[in-house]
Amino acid sequence: MWCELASTLSLPDLIAAGDYLVHRELPHTNVASLAAAVEVYPARHGSASLRQAITLLDDNSASRRESLLRVLAQQQGFTGFRTNMRIRTASGHTYFGDLVFLHERVILEYQSEYHFDLDQQRKDMTRRSRLEADNWAVMFVNSSDLDNPRELASRIRAVMANHSRQLASG
């Protein structure tokens, strides 16, 4: 079925669908099985997208929008980040960052409508302040941000540069 989707989905959506299928918590299949399916699908419409998508699947991506953010970051030249990385704060709290640039200490957090709930907003604020207290820069990203990849990439680079300067100065 995933191979059939390649003829109708964009590359980022094809990757998001694949991420869902291989997600570590409830896998429907694995990357090796999907890769084998791609091999027997060589000349069909969408086969080039499948060959590209199979190399970009991530079993840590927790949602379609997180996958789209990750693909956007990759397409804009970002490397060296980890998906849903566990971060333990000095105060003993454990969080998972959607896209974590460990060396730069920058976290990109996709904020879906789930985060609009008042109680969740409060939890997110506390989470953010605890991470920032440990010298992490936390950047929230929403669906509108995904509509302008270059502008979003420019903001991410600015956050990274500003945060690097702050860390260097002390």
Structural class: alpha+beta
Please give the CATH class of the largest domain.
Answer: Alpha Beta
Low-confidence runs: none
Termini Cα gap: 53 Å
Number of domains: 2
- Under the CATH scheme, the architecture of the largest domain is 3-Layer(aba) Sandwich
Topology as a string of helices (H) and strands (E): HHHHHEEEHEH
CATH superfamily of the largest domain: VSR Endonuclease
In percent, how helical is the residue content? 40-55%
Number of strands: 4
* CATH-assigned fold name of the largest domain: Endonuclease, Chain A
Coarse morphology: elongated
Overall average pLDDT: 92
Number of helices: 7
C-alpha Rg, in Å? 18 Å
Largest sheet geometry: 4 strands, mixed
- Cross-sheet strand order for the largest sheet: 1-2-3-4
Share of residues in strands: 5-15%
Question: Your description of this structure?
Answer:
The chain is α+β, with helices and mostly antiparallel strands and 170 residues long. It is elongated, with a radius of gyration of 18 Å. The longest helix has 21 residues. The mean pLDDT is 92. It has two domains: 53 residues, no CATH class; 106 residues, Endonuclease, Chain A. The termini are far apart. Helix 2 packs across helix 4, helix 2 packs across helix 5 and helix 3 packs antiparallel against helix 4. It has a four-stranded mixed beta sheet, sandwiched between helices. The protein has seven helices and four strands, in the order H-H-H-H-H-E-E-E-H-E-H.
Topology:
Elements: H1 2-5, H2 11-22, H3 31-39, H4 47-54, H5 64-75, E1 82-88, E2 94-101, E3 106-110, H6 118-133, E4 137-141, H7 149-169
Parallel strand pairs: 3-4
Antiparallel strand pairs: 1-2, 2-3
Helix pairs in contact: 2-4, 2-5, 3-4
